[in-house]
Each structure stands twice: as structure tokens, then as C-alpha cells.
Amino acid sequence: MRPIEIEIGIWNLDFGIWNFSHLVIRMQVKEILREYSINEDGCRVEALTGGLINGTWKVSADKGEYILQRINTAVFKNPEAIAQNLELISEYLKRFPNYLFVGPIKNNSGNTLTVRDSRAYRIFPFINNTHTIDKVTTADEAYEAAAQFGQFTYMLKDFDAGKLEITIPDFHNLTLRYSQFLQATESGNIERIKQAAQSIKKLKQNSSIVEEYNAITKNQNFPKRVTHHDTKISNVLFDNHSKGVCVIDLDTVMPGYFFSDVGDMMRTYLSPSTEEETDFSKITIRPEVYEAIVNGYRDRMRQILTQQENQKFFYSGTFMIYMQALRFITDFLNNDVYYGAKYPDHNFNRAGNQVALLERLIEQKGILTQRR
Questions:
Q1: CA 319 from chain center: how many Å?
Q2: In whole angstroms, what is the distance from residue 231 CA to residue 11 CA?
Q3: Are the C-beta atoms of 289 and 357 separated by less than 8 Å?
Q4: Distance CA 262, CA 241 (A)
Q5: Which residues are CB-neighbours of 179 under 8 A, at least 6 positions away?
Q6: Mean pLDDT, to the nearest integer, of 96-103?
Q7: Which spans in the chain are helix H?
Q8: What counts of helices (H) and strands (E) characterise the chain?
Q9: What is the rounded average pLDDT of the residues 314-332?
Q10: pLDDT in tens, 193-213
Q11: Distant-in-sequence, close-in-space partners of 163: CB < 8 Å, separation ≥ 6
């Protein structure tokens, strides 16, 4: 087997590797596999490129197949907190043996996290006959994904969400994001502030979304639940019949509000265009996908959703789209220090994209809320 770069290809642990950095990673992987009593001889390791944060590989060994992940500690600064959360949830869900929860495997020391040279690794079982998708193309896909995220939160309805560690502080804190946005409009790059004047104006005009968020977080009828917080379609496993099987990538599981999960689905599923689209005329809202998200999530959460929560499905979409627009424009004004940029106006364009998506959603409020 010829060696190919580890980040994009397939390699064999017994075969030579081209450069020193890859050799270091290869040796670390061999050590990690030994920690889980996986025979590294002849192992086939295939890089999976769908994830944007963690390094992820499929490991094919003589006794089975696994998913190996290296946690990005620049994003998740406390990987031990993630491990603790997943262990708590995994232990709790053992009382529901028919529910598939893909938790990490314990190593020979009884831990799910293995640290080598300041790098944190963990291993999951590979679920056969499943696949992920990167983009919602049908309402059925949206329904299946929403149902799986709803089912996850429902299964944990009696779990004390307060026991979970906060893996990313203030991740969906809209009050903070708006404050950071206002600060950037005052102290950010002057030329960029001028360039983004139209987007800044539109975001300020929609500040009622922040006011509504502040009111909701003070309302006891909106309980904090165990929520996923990263409900893009690629975080659901589908079977060979395109039915949802379970949710994956649980690093952002924390206490949160239902509208974080629903809103993230709406932000990433509703339009056939992604946040990278620069031709804003292509940004549209698919009513059938909106309906599928609402129905899929509600079908699994119906027994525990409060009356007030049921009234905020549309708000969920405006909340998440608006917050992401704030984050993109804030980073642009601050010279791309958070997200970085692939080209000079990258975050400027992404902010404009999200502003356009928000406008399209609000324009169709009457139509969408009647379809429920």
C-alpha cells in the first residue's frame, strides 16, 4: 500500500511514511491503539474529512472497525470535560438498551480519553451499514435528522442537565454575541466598518431578536435541557434506507434551550445554498424543509415541550441565523481573528449571506407558520 498524507488519505501502520510530522502522528496512533488492546499490525487507517474541528480516522483492525478522533484542544480547551459529559450520558442511557448511543470506548486504564504529548484522543465503535450526508436535499432527510436530535434530548428528559460541564462557554449566548458586535462597530477596523455599513444597519434593525432572547432566558417555561448544540445534517447517521439511526459528534452537548438545536437545523437545512454562497439571489427558503424540521423534532419531543416552547419554533430559526450573522460580521470587523479567512472578504460575505437568509425567513413567516 503506498503511503498517502494522513490528513487526506489511507495508510498502513506497518508501512513507511514520508515525513517526520506524519511519522510522529503514526507513532502516536500506534500507542493509542495499544491502549485499547487493538492490534496495530496491519491496521488500515483512513482519514475522514467531513469534520471541521477534530481529526477523525476510520481504523480497520483484525477484530473490528473503529473511529479514532484527536480532539482539537484549540477549540475544546478542556477535553476532560467532554469525556466526563459523555461518560455520564453513556452511563445514564444504559437503562434504555434499545436506544443507540455511540459513546467512546474505555482504554486499558478505564478511561475514555487518552492523552499523548498534549494531544487528546478517543475511540468509538464504528457503526456498520450507516453513512452521513453533508447537505440536505430532501424534506425526508430533514425530518429524519430533526427526529434524531429530538429523540436524543427526549431520552435525557429526566437526566439532570446541570451535571454537565460547559465545553464551550457562552456558545449560544446571544446577549454576549450582540455586545461583542456593538463593540466591534466602535473599535474595529475603520475601513471594514465603512464597508459593512449596510449589514451593520440591518443587524441593528433586528435587535428585537436579542430582546426576545433575553425575555425567554428569564422565563421558567423555557427549561434548560440536554441539547446537542451542533445539529448540522452530518452529525446524524443514516441507514441504507435513508432512515435516521442516531446522533454523533457530541462534544458540544451541554445544558441549553431547545431553540438552539432547532435553530441550527433551520440555519443549515432551510436553504439549498450554504453560508459560503456569495450570490445572495440563490439563497431561498424551502417551506417543505421547514415543516419537516418542526414535525420531526416535535414528534419526538411532543410529550415534554411546553406550550411556550411550541410557540417559538419560528423564532428558533431567526435566533440562530441572526447570531451567526453577528459572529461573522464581528470577526470581519476585528480583522478575522476568530474564524480566519480564506480570502479578504470571506467573513464579510458570510455575514451578508446570513443576513440575506434571515431576511428570506422573515419574509415567509406567514407561509411557514401556517404549514405546521
A1: 16
A2: 31
A3: no
A4: 24
A5: none
A6: 96
A7: 20-35, 79-93, 139-155, 174-187, 190-195, 197-205, 208-217, 258-269, 287-301, 307-310, 313-333, 346-363, 365-370
A8: 13, 11
A9: 98
A10: 999 999 999 999 999 999 999
A11: 88
Tell me the pTM.
0.90
pLDDT for the residue numbered 21: 44
Q: What pLDDT is attached to residue 47?
A: 79
**73-97 average pLDDT score:** 90
Backbone angles phi, psi at 179, to 5 degrees: -60, -40
Residue with cell 428585537: 208
What does the DSSP assignment read for 201-212?
Answer: HHHHHTTHHHHH
Cell numbers at 261, concatenated? 438545536
d(Cα 334, Cα 182) in Å, to the nearest integer?
12
Beta strands in 230-299 (DSSP E): 236-239, 244-247, 254-256
Q: What pLDDT does 212 receive?
A: 98
Single-letter amino acid code for the residue at 358: L
Beta-strand pair 130-131/236-239: antiparallel
DSSP H or E run through 120: strand 119-125
Residue 253 has pLDDT above 60, yes or no: yes
Cα–Cα separations (whole angstroms), residue 290 to 140, 270, 350, 367: 11, 6, 22, 10
User: Exposed, middle or buried, 31 (CB in 10 Å: 0-12/13-18/19+)?
Assistant: middle
- The three three-digit cell numbers of residue 240, written as one number: 441504507
Rounded Cα distance, 25 and 27, in Å = 5
Would you say 144 and 236 are in contact if contact means Cβ atoms under 8 Å apart?
A: yes
Amino acid (1-letter code) at residue 107: N
Closest to 206 (Cα-Cα) out of 359, 95, 369: 359
Q: Are 150 and 301 in contact (CB under 8 A)?
A: yes
Residue 49: what pLDDT? Answer: 61
Distances (CA, A) of 169 to 76, 172, 271, 366: 10, 9, 29, 35
Q: What are the beta bridge partners of residue 244?
A: 238
What's the residue count for the chain?
Answer: 372
In DSSP terms, which residues pair with 116 in a beta bridge? 119
The SS3 call for residue 259 is: helix
pLDDT for residue 107: 92
Read off the DSSP letter of residue 104: P
Nearest residue to 318 via CA among 207, 201, 196: 207
